[in-house]
Amino acid sequence: MKQQVTDRLRFFKAFVAHPRQVGAVLPTSRSAVRDMLDLADLPAADLVVELGAGTGSQTGQILERLHPGARLLALEIDPALAALLDARYDDPRLEVVCASAEHLEDHLAGSLADVLVCALPFTSLEQGLRRRILDQMPRALSPSGSAVVIQYSPLIEPELRRRFGSVRRRISPRNVPPAFLFACSLQDDAVREGRASESRPG
After folding, report:
1. Does residue 22 sit within a domain?
2. How many domains does the chain have?
3. Is the pLDDT of residue 61 over 90?
4. What are the phi and psi torsion angles at 99 (to 5°)?
5. Could you tell me the residue range of the domain that residue 105 belongs to?
6. For residue 172, what pLDDT is reported?
7. Can you give the pLDDT at residue 18?
8. What is the pTM of this model?
9. How far apart (Å, rounded) are the C-alpha atoms in residues 104 and 197?
10. β-strand pairing of 166-172 with 94-97
11. Chain center to CA of 183
């Protein structure tokens, strides 16, 4: 409980300093993060990328689901929050990078993510920055990978649909305010279902 209160204060401090960059007064609830991560196959992932790691409300739950040989690359633009993540999680699978998500490609070293987890406040970002980050996301994914996105507004959905072949939406009502969750893939649903059928025996 003490850590939760401290994290909320740190998050609020970051919001006051950079409101458009942080986009929310409080970290996302554990239940909303769980609902979002349930939309991706994290246990099967070898490389997971997290954009907007914040105080680690997603990071900890991602690490809980990853297999021992997996890797998590977490980008956080706020230096204080990035340092907090580094100190909090003593896990060799985690690499914390203090950088803007628009520079994601520079930190992948040619690798492609199996799962991309994004908690960036797109609706509060400057339009050019928002476009550059959204353009990075499909380029960072493996062909069969998935991106899961959490927002407090559905307004970003058309932008996601322009970049991904399939976008599914659900709501996590227990978060305050209710959170909109998006599961995105490069292939459309028909192609994914066709390939799944081909791989089934008989």
Report:
1. no
2. 1
3. yes
4. -165, 160
5. 30-199
6. 92
7. 44
8. 0.81
9. 34
10. unpaired
11. 10
Is residue 3 included in any domain, yes or no? Answer: no
- Residue 16 and residue 129: Cα distance in Å, rounded? 20
Segment (H or E) for 167 = strand 166-172
Q: Would the pLDDT of 193 be above 70?
A: no
Q: Where are the alpha helices (DSSP H) in the chain?
A: 2-17, 19-22, 30-37, 59-65, 79-88, 104-108, 127-140, 157-163, 189-199
**Which H, E and C letters describe 184-200, residue by residue?**
EECCCHHHHHHHHHHHC
Look at residue 138 and tell me if it is in a domain.
yes
Which of 13-17, 132-136, 188-192 has the highest average model confidence (pLDDT)? 132-136
Residue 145's contacts (CB-CB under 8 Å, 6 or more residues apart) are: 112, 113, 114, 115, 116, 185, 186
Domain holding 69: CATH number?
A: 3.40.50.150
Residue 53 has pLDDT above 90, yes or no: yes
Structure tokens at 98: 């203090």
